[in-house]
Amino acid sequence: MALPCPMCKTPLGLTLEFIIKHPVSACPNCKTVLDFTVNEDIKKSYNEAMGEIKKIKNQYKGMVKFG
Predict the structure, then answer these.
(1) Who is most buried in 8, 9, 14, 56, counting CB within 10 A?
(2) Which of 2, 36, 5 shows the shortest CA–CA distance to 20?
């Protein structure tokens, strides 16, 4: 589900991965600055969870199709 700009409601298509890597960005339509800065504990938890998901995908690669 695309995150809309809170000001102009334009769908931005931001993913959690993009937000973690680039916490401050601007809407390409209305130029509103969006700041999703989070503390290091949240980033660490996110990275650990993504690592677990990748590990599970690699473990079952070729047996199961992940969408």
Answers:
(1) 14
(2) 36
pTM of the model: 0.63
Per-domain boundaries in the chain? 16-59
List the structure tokens of 32: 């509103």
Q: Which amino acid is at 51?
A: G
> What pLDDT, in 10s, does the model give residues 17-44?
888 889 999 999 999 999 989 899 999 9
Looking at residue 37, what is its pLDDT?
92
- 25 burial via Cβ count (<10 Å: 0-12, 13-18, 19+): middle
Both structure tokens of 1: 């589900």
Q: What is residue 60's predicted lDDT score, i.e. its pLDDT?
A: 87
CA-based nearest residue to 26, from 43, 14, 38: 14
